[in-house]
């Protein structure tokens, strides 16, 4: 029955229940699980761990690629399984436990986690739990809809548990390109010079003797919660298109642009979707998450090829894409996230990176992780990998939130994830600020004029003019710089009282 997917004959006897497989995971262990932005996560063993934790002491350090789907982070958090979580999450229940100090969350650039594991700066991984579409005759693991950190987890772990997901089509085989960087001090350049280059294997190569258990599942990935474009996100997309048109006019880009990257979420997805009605063509992507907009661009004849680490789609898009996957397969590749997010490749390809900010300030510093400077939202993800190394580093956000109670443009950000040195372009629905080649005082004028909502423009101008009286290269009123955040905490709004 399972020979089509478990092709190594000696591994058929390793098929067990999720509960028996989970027994290999003991209290205090470090566990590496597949999963990247709600795609390709192991689905049965985590639930068995959560159930077990309700009857016996069980705490683990959990390392993934990024966020897990199917409410797994929620169930693990509510069962108090997690003592430590790395490197990204997006679940409200887990977020609550992190902000309460129950779970120690290490927020990392997504390209760095397995580098630290490989060099024993963190870890080691005791058990890896990897979702697969199949296992090859030699014991190689063929991932499903994401690669993330799965390859290095499986290679570095003492034991590997494989979840064979029969709901994932065998057509996914051949989609993946598993390349592991060579060891220092003689590490070779990663030989990717175009998004379509394939430089590795279509499976994760491990010794099959390491596979301790196999669980057969049939649960689908969670669908994403991406919202369709609205008036504001269409305006943001229009500003970006205008910028790129201008770059072409100046001869700095051609109408095929350069490889595109977009962060996860409704705003970034909508901005990419906006390129459908642009003059650009024969586009490519070198990104992390391939969202609905990737396939919309394929269908519109705008996109030639997309490289990522996971495919995360809305329910409607899943239902359209998976049955017709053969039509897209030759134009797609999924890589380990340390390759999809690798600074060397991002810089070499000249990626145009579009990521989402929670807030940014007068001088171009961006906060993408912390609400009010203290409470973790999701994590930095891969935005820093791309922002520091992109040809164009673009951050987008709506200018206000909570019906105007919050301004996304503030005097000083309450937490810095991306310094002004890594940010080229800021865009809200109000307009665009091109910060390249500008000193701080010039940046501030442009940000206020072009990006701030009218509700807050006068207040921000007033702050800046008074700060100028104190002089300085980067004028600030230190005693007031976080005053807007304090007002939000005390009065529920940043609007002047």
From TrEMBL:
InterPro entries: AcetylCoA_hyd_C (IPR026888), AcetylCoA_hyd_C_sf (IPR038460), ActCoA_hydro (IPR046433), ActCoA_hydro_N (IPR003702), NagB/RpiA_transferase-like (IPR037171), Succinate_CoA_transferase (IPR017821). The keyword Repeat does not apply. Keywords: Transferase. Its EC number is 2.8.3.18. Pfam families: AcetylCoA_hyd_C (PF13336), AcetylCoA_hydro (PF02550). Coiled coil: none annotated. Residues 324-463 form the Acetyl-CoA hydrolase/transferase C-terminal domain. One of its GO terms (biological process) is acetyl-CoA metabolic process. The active site is at 288 (5-glutamyl coenzyme a thioester intermediate). Residues 11-215 form the Acetyl-CoA hydrolase/transferase N-terminal domain. GO terms for molecular function: acetate CoA-transferase activity; acetyl-CoA hydrolase activity. CoA binds at residues 378, 382, 402. Belongs to the acetyl-CoA hydrolase/transferase family. This is Succinyl-CoA:acetate CoA-transferase. It comes from Ancylobacter tetraedralis. The lineage of its organism: Bacteria, Pseudomonadati, Pseudomonadota, Alphaproteobacteria, Hyphomicrobiales.
